[in-house]
Amino acid sequence: MEIPKIIDGIETDKDASKQRREVIRQTYLHLLQHLQQTKGKKAVHNHFLGVDVYIIMRESEQKTSNSGAHNWQSTFAVKHLEKVIANAKSKEGVPVYSLPTTNKQKNFKYVNMAVLYYDFENDQCDYLNFTVKLTLGIKNDGRHIQYSVNKVDVVKTKSFCNKVAKTEVLACTK
After folding, report:
1. How many whole angstroms separate alpha carbon 139 and alpha carbon 124?
2. Cα–Cα distances in Å, from 125 out to 2, 21, 88, 150, 166?
3. Quick one: which of 65, 84, 126, 140 is 20 to 30 A from 152 by CA?
């Protein structure tokens, strides 16, 4: 089954990173406004760590728009960022915490980094089954800041897409 050209308003073509970067920017602006209006703060509670994860445009969107625009799955994850942050958890055998390794992480004054994972699962369309890595920067005051989210793995599942009419396949992305 071929992947549709557009999924959830995201162009899937490899060369559409400029369009995806704009989707990411607009998604962050909308999410920050939504969080401020509904929760009074620009944070999402992560159930696994039991902490509020803050979204700061100059840190969160900057890194994610660079890495998340490379493929449509990462951009898709950004469009569902509130759910990803709330439900991301550790992966067996992978440490959650590490020291900052890049200059950018150090420039943002993170004292620790946390890496969690979220699995997108869809029993109707294989292309909507993948894992994303959520990276959080932790400040010395304990605040957790969403740093990046990007696709790391395609989850193998039984294909149902071949049994569904083309119009229904496109409907599973809405």
Report:
1. 40
2. 10, 24, 21, 20, 11
3. 140
Among the listed residues 154, 87, 142, 88, the one whose alpha carbon sits nearest the alpha carbon of residue 115: 88
Whether 166 has a pLDDT exceeding 70, the answer reads no
Query: Is it the case that residue 170 has pLDDT exceeding 50?
Result: no
User: Hey, what are 31's tokens?
Assistant: 């999410």
DSSP the chain: -PPPSEETTEE-STT-HHHHHHHHHHHHHHHHHHHHHHHSSSEEEETTTTEEEE--HHHHHHHHHHHHTTSHHHHHHHHTHHHHHHH-B--TTS-SEE---SHHHHHTT-SEEEEEEEEE--SS-GGG-EEEEEEEEE-TTS-EEEEEEEEEEEPP----GGGS-HHHHHHTT-
pTM: 0.86
